[in-house]
Design goal:
The complex is a heterodimer. Chain A is an all-alpha fold. Chain A has one domain: Orthogonal Bundle (ABC transporter involved in vitamin B12 uptake, BtuC). In chain A, 73% of the residues lie in helices and 2% in strands. Chain A has a two-stranded antiparallel ribbon with strand order 1-4. Chain A is globular. The two termini of chain A are 41 Å apart. Chain B is α/β, with parallel strands linked by helices. Chain B has 3 domains: 161 residues, P-loop containing nucleotide triphosphate hydrolases (Rossmann fold); 186 residues, P-loop containing nucleotide triphosphate hydrolases (Rossmann fold, 3-Layer(aba) Sandwich); 74 residues, no CATH class. Chain B is 34% helix and 25% strand. Chain B contains 18 helices and 22 strands. In chain B, helix 15 runs parallel beside helix 16 and helix 17 crosses helix 18. The longest helix of chain B is centred in the middle third of the chain and has 16 residues. Chain B is globular, with a radius of gyration of 25 Å. The two termini of chain B are 37 Å apart. The chains are: A mainly alpha, B alpha/beta. The interface between A and B is large, with 36 and 57 residues.
């Protein structure tokens, strides 16, 4: 009973094995291919039914329209894998936009100040969400339901609901209207968020901790992981990304408005769940989230091109989301 | 096939409640059951033994209609029956009491007993008074001492099981299947459960009793069937067999390590008389001034009844409960555990009591679980060194002989014993200074148990100080160099190997200390 060995049962970690695993991480995640099939089906259906759908311009359009949802959904992926939810993201976006625009108008009209104020405000809301959830053990559903309302209210209070005009050209170029290597900057920022998300979730030790905390919080605690800190960090990341989305939106519209993107949190959550995250935590992957968000964006775009009335669009969108989740469920 | 000493299951259609003939079941390439026969008589407790993976669960799932058998017959009271759903099995009078109970914890006992069968008015309103009365009458008829108004969630575990059994009996149940019902009960609670089982059999209900505990088989069953590798390994009349024959049937004679050899292995071990961990006067919540020391290479046991504070001692050392007062030293240096991360950094490891809740992320791979407490080791500039992590996991899987396809298998798919080995694997490398074990072999079959003992002894031989809590007194006596008796949050006495040599003596001792603590003069009964 001294040497316990079972050589034939040990997995070998060969190079090709690693590569296959990497591919799995990126492409498949836990839900086999259904997501991609659904996306392709959507593309085919819309291409056949609308002559305008299949064009580079239109795809750039879809990319631009899904930017806000995609950027925030990266953060939401972390939050949902950690078994939490953040309902406050749309309000956080509005508040961060106001903070960015006001900071610029007060301090030198500097785009750096604006960007710092926007990102900082978002991260701060995330920090508060995280601290209230973990330190006071209030379910994040309730905490963020409260901050959804508070952040929106604050955004409206600061200017008495008036929009704030932005005039800094550099700010427009960096976040809204320029392009980088031929890619429109909103899409470039989405890619940045995605890549950071993939690195953090799939390659960084932080990702391991997030999966463990969501998979089994008690076991994570018993393994020496500071579960409160890890959970809070996921909220901070999501808040900061809502701040980034605010910069993109305000740079595109040359102004920050306190009443923008109401209800967008639902699109964000739908994108993450469509992308294969489990609402029970412990499962999910970033590229899935991107596709989830693209499916929602493509739906929005395609239905408009088909001339579907907007109330009917809502009904169809909702039905397709439920159907897709039902299909991809294991 | 070892069948000596077994009696053939004689066909007795007049008295047999359940007749299972030649049942076979395949899952893919695995033959889970091969030509299994079983008969259960009315009013009989028929025990079912076997290692994890021997086919017990599959057999139960076929009887309860979860799986369909590939071949074979089932007869209930002489009539052929086929179950294509759990509902059909229930209609035929078969009820399964699962390990995780199917009660609504927020409702009362009465509400649970009559769930979905509530007496109601024409408009669907519940007649509360009639409901309470019916539940109360039923329980008193049965002689089960349960308060109908008590919320199920607030009851001790044994009483919940009793509720579950009562609920099963309330329907027209003829065969009751209990799947490891005592795995989380104290010895007093086991009494209560056995009492309830007795009440059921007296009403003519047949019971299939699945367990890992051989002593329970002798206490409660009339006959016992052993499954090994999906086939009958013998059916015995309990009164005509003994522990040794059953163990042989369960694991196959060839695999049983001779007792003499084990004793030798234990005696050959010696430990360094320098404490790797010592507590003096540690107090917190229910702990009052705990004094304890664990030497390098020692296996030190903590014996005590449930609620005595055994688990709290381990949790305090692991930093889960900040110490109120007292001092603690590790390797001669003063240290007060502040958090699990702090304890791990000092070389303290914990294999917790409930591996599903506290030990493992079931839906993640073996590799992910094994590397979980070592994440900081694999971080280079924040990036996970995935290859190094995989190597270390492979090494642990090999060393502990975890039976799995590979380190990427999901932990959920493993048997109980192999899951427990994965929990040990979390602390395989680097070797911990202090290894805390809370009920290390609960729900683990006989074969895997021996392997886990081997793992524990190896760790001690390498110089780790091991502190082990166990309700299994035989286990403590077999493993430990010293045993500390915990009574009411403090160490009442520490015994050295040789001072006591059988479980019965230790059991007496615990009873005596407990009685004196409560100021009750009570003759301990074995």
């Amino acid at each position: 009973m001294t040497e316990l060995t079972a050589p034939n049962l040990v997995a070998s970690s060969t190079r090709s094995d690693r590569r296959r695993k990497l591919l799995q991480n990126l492409l498949r995640g836990e839900r086999p291919y259904m997501l991609y099939i659904a996306f392709v089906v959507l593309l085919v259906v819309f291409s056949l039914s609308s002559p305008w759908f299949l064009s580079v311009d239109n795809f750039l359009n879809i990319g631009r329209q899904t930017t806000l949802v995609s950027i925030i959904a990266v953060g939401m992926t972390f939050v949902i894998i950690a078994r939490q939810i953040d309902l406050s993201v749309a309000s956080t976006l509005a508040l961060s936009g106001m903070a960015a625009a006001l900071a610029m108008s007060q301090i030198n009209n500097s785009w750096i100040v604006g960007a710092a104020a926007g990102l900082g405000t978002g991260a701060l809301v995330g920090l508060l969400n995280g601290i209230l959830t973990t330190q006071l053990s209030i379910p994040s559903f309730l905490v963020t339901l409260g901050s959804l309302s508070m952040a929106r209210g604050l955004a409206m209070m600061v200017t008495n609901t008036k929009p704030v005009i932005i005039t800094n050209e550099t700010y427009f170029a960096i976040f809204g209207e320029g392009s980088f290597l031929g890619i429109p900057v909103p899409i470039a920022w989405t890619l940045v968020a995605m890549i950071v998300g993939i690195l953090l979730l799939h390659y960084n030790v932080f990702g391991r901790r997030i999966y463990a905390v969501g998979g089994n919080p008690t076991a994570a605690l018993y393994s020496g992981i500071n579960t409160k800190w890890v959970t809070t960090a996921a909220f901070v990341l999501t808040g900061a990304l809502a701040g980034l989305a605010a910069l993109v939106l305000s740079a595109r519209s040359h102004a920050a408005r306190p009443d923008v993107v109401q209800g967008m949190e639902l699109d964000v959550i739908a994108a993450v769940i469509l992308g294969g995250c489990s609402l029970f935590g412990g499962r999910g992957y970033i590229l899935g989230t991107l596709f989830g968000s693209l499916i929602i964006g493509t739906l929005n775009n395609g239905l408009v091109l088909l001339g579907v009335s907007s109330p009917l669009q809502l009904v169809i969108k909702g039905a397709i989301i439920v159907a897709a989740v039902a299909f991809t469920k294991r | 096939m070892e069948l000596s000493g077994s009696i053939a299951a004689e066909p007795r259609p007049s008295t047999a409640l359940l007749m299972v003939g030649g049942i076979s079941k395949r899952f893919g390439g695995v033959r889970a059951l091969r030509d299994v026969n079983l008969d259960v008589r009315a009013g009989e407790v028929h025990a079912l033994l076997g290692e994890n993976g021997a086919g017990k669960s599959t057999l139960i799932k076929i009887l309860s209609g979860v799986h369909a058998a590939d071949s074979g017959t089932i007869e209930i009271a002489g009539k052929p029956a086929t179950f294509d759903s759990p509902a059909r099995s229930r209609e035929a009078g078969i009820a399964v009491v699962y390990q995780d109970l199917s009660l609504v914890e927020s409702l009362s006992v009465a509400d649970n007993l009559l769930l979905d069968r509530e007496p109601r008015t024409r408009f669907g309103f519940v007649r509360k008074r009639e409901l309470m009365a019916r539940a109360g009458t039923f329980l008193s008829e049965l002689g089960i001492p349960l308060d109908t108004k008590a919320t199920v969630g607030s009851l001790p575990f044994a009483y919940r099981q009793m509720t579950e059994i009562a609920k099963a009996l309330m329907g027209e149940v003829r065969l009751l299947i209990l799947d490891e019902p005592t795995s989380s009960l104290t010895s007093d609670e086991v009494r209560i459960l056995f009492d309830a089982i007795g009440k059921a059999t007296r009403r003519g209900v047949g019971v299939i009793y699945v367990t890992h505990q051989l002593n329970e088989v002798f206490e409660i069953s009339q006959r016992v069937m052993v499954l090994r590798d999906g086939a009958n390994a013998g059916t015995f009349v309990t009164a005509e067999t003994d522990m040794k024959r059953l163990v042989n049937a369960i694991i196959g004679t060839d695999r049983l390590a001779p007792a003499a050899l084990r004793a030798e292995a234990a005696a050959a071990r010696s430990f360094d008389p320098s404490p790797v961990l010592s507590l003096s006067g540690v107090s917190k919540d229910r702990l009052s001034a705990v004094d304890l020391s664990v030497m390098k290479g020692e296996i030190h046991g903590l014996a005590g009844l449930i609620g005595s504070g055994r688990t709290e001692v381990l949790e305090t050392i692991f930093g889960l409960r900040p110490v109120d007062s007292g001092a603690c030293q590790i390797d001669g240096r003063p240290w007060l555990p502040r958090s699990p991360a702090d304890a791990i950094a000092q070389g303290v490891a914990l294999v917790p009591e409930d591996r599903h809740v506290q030990g493992l992320v079931l839906d993640h791979s073996i590799e992910r679980n094994i590397t979980l407490p070592r994440i900081p080791h694999f971080s280079r500039w924040g990036f996970m060194q995935q290859r190094a992590a995989a190597r270390r996991a492979d090494a642990a899987v090999a060393k502990l002989s975890v039976k799995a396809q590979g380190a990427s298998s999901l932990v959920r798919t493993l048997s109980g014993g192999n899951q427990q080995k994965v929990v040990f694997g979390k602390w395989n490398d680097p070797r911990p200074r202090v290894l805390l074990l809370d009920e290390p072999t609960v729900g683990v079959d006989v074969g895997a148990r021996e392997e886990i003992y081997g793992v524990i002894r190896n760790a001690a031989r390498d110089g780790t100080g091991v502190l082990v809590v166990s309700s299994d007194l035989v286990e403590l006596i077999e493993l430990c160099d010293r045993i500390s008796v915990i009574v009411d949050g403090r160490v009442a006495r520490t015994l050295v190997r040789g001072e006591i040599d059988d479980a019965e003596e230790l059991h007496h001792l615990l009873q005596i200390y407990q009685a004196s603590e409560q100021g009750v003069l009570q003759e301990p009964h074995a």
